[in-house]
Design a protein that fits this description.
With 339 residues, this protein is an alpha+beta fold. It has three domains: 66 residues, Uridine Diphospho-n-acetylenolpyruvylglucosamine Reductase, domain 2; 113 residues, Uridine Diphospho-n-acetylenolpyruvylglucosamine Reductase, domain 3, CATH 3.30.465.10; 104 residues, UDP-N-acetylenolpyruvoylglucosamine reductase, C-terminal domain (Uridine Diphospho-n-acetylenolpyruvylglucosamine Reductase, domain 1), CATH 3.90.78.10. 23% of the residues lie in helices and 26% in strands. The strands form six sheets. A five-stranded antiparallel sheet has the order 6-7-12-10-11, with no helix packed on it. The chain has a four-stranded mixed sheet with strand order 1-2-5-3. Strand 8 and strand 9 form a beta hairpin. Helix 3 crosses helix 4. The radius of gyration is 20 Å and the shape is globular.
């Protein structure tokens, strides 16, 4: 029997930890339960929000609608070849715990994505990525419930239109599907990606001469722990802004004015600019306003030190966007979903 809670505080379910209530709240741990909830008269014509790990969202007001918490669990090996293993994972599984599961079995592909907060279901939505690896590199397919037909549909890699922190589920299919499981393609004989200097430096610090799935995972965990605040201690959603990508001509103009600008050449000839560098140069890093501010070690991370309101953090992000645009002519885009 589906249990609804009314005027429910969901503060504890989000990593920012700002005070927020949901008009209606319900959890589901299977597709059958999800269909039952969506067929209930109480949710008819109400806005719906799927809550996973609550790690990529900022609430600026109470949610007038129904919040559905995805608790679909399970890991199933669907197929195994000489070189690859295909694992289907419930969308409600914790992402980092799944990474550690693969590391423990020496399956490569997602070790660079260690310690990213959130649940598995959100990973393809925004094509999460870190240290040279993105979900699209290991993604095989996903299953999602069509909210119109209440039927499960399958999406292959090419169906998802993956881009930088983008997928079809963030634009044309936004609000039309609920992801229930994701299937990943892991490598038995992994090719390691240590192209980011921070990983190589950390491996050297650890005395690692022969990279392994576990060594790279440990290195990434060490790097992220040193730079990023633990959401259990300081409210945050990880990187708040995307790294902007600009065309070569615009970049050359920018480089002429700011020769030390941090940037990463892209395969298509464009340049990815380090948003954290832009924000840091303007003096935002470590800035505290009351109970919120910008983290002292990472300018991309906005933090809630106490009982800050989501609206205050959102306004701070707007000030940062305005200052970056005024100085560099670049308009930063929020990576975090705003509600």
């Amino acid at each position: 029997m589906v249990q609804f809670e009314y005027n429910k505080s969901i503060q504890e379910y989000t990593t920012f930890g700002v005070p927020v209530k949901a008009e209606l709240f319900c959890t589901f741990s299977s597709v059958t339960e999800l269909k039952e909830i969506l067929s209930d008269k109480r949710v008819e014509n109400k806005p719906q929000l799927i809550l996973g790990g609550g790690s990529n969202m900022l609430f600026t007001k109470n949610f007038e609608g129904v919040v559905l918490k995805n608790e679909i669990l399970g890991k199933t090996t669907l197929k195994e070849t000489e070189k690859e293993v295909f694992i289907q994972v419930g969308a409600g599984e914790n992402w980092h715990e799944f990474v550690l599961h693969c590391v423990s079995k020496n399956l490569g592909g997602i070790e660079n994505l260690s310690l990213i907060p959130g649940n598995v279901g959100a990973s393809p939505m925004q094509n999460i990525g870190a240290y040279g690896v993105e979900i699209k590199d290991v993604f095989s397919s996903l299953q999602a419930l069509n909210l119109q037909t209440l039927e499960i549909e399958e999406f292959e890699n090419e169906d998802c239109n993956f881009g930088y922190r983008e997928s079809i589920f963030k634009n044309t299919h936004k609000g039309k599907y609920i992801i229930t499981s994701v299937t990943f393609r892991l490598q038995k004989e992994p090719v390691f990606n240590t192209s980011y200097g921070a990983i190589e430096a950390q491996l050297n610090t650890m005395g690692v001469t022969e990279p392994s799935v576990k060594a790279i995972s440990d290195a990434v965990i060490a790097i992220r722990t040193s730079k990023l605040p633990d959401p259990k201690e300081i409210g945050n959603a990880g990187s708040f802004f995307k790294n902007p990508v600009i065309d070569k001509k615009s970049f050359e103009v920018l480089l002429d004015k700011f020769p030390s600008i941090a940037h990463y050449p892209q395969p298509d000839g464009k340049e990815k600019i380090a948003a954290g560098w832009l924000i840091d140069q303007l003096g935002w890093k470590g800035k505290t306003i009351g109970e919120y501010g910008v983290h002292k070690n990472q300018a991309l991370v906005l933090v809630n030190y106490g009982e800050s309101e989501g609206r205050d953090i959102y306004n701070l992000s707007s000030e940062i966007i305005d200052s970056v645009k005024e100085t560099y002519g670049i308009e930063l885009e929020r990576e975090v979903n705003i509600y």
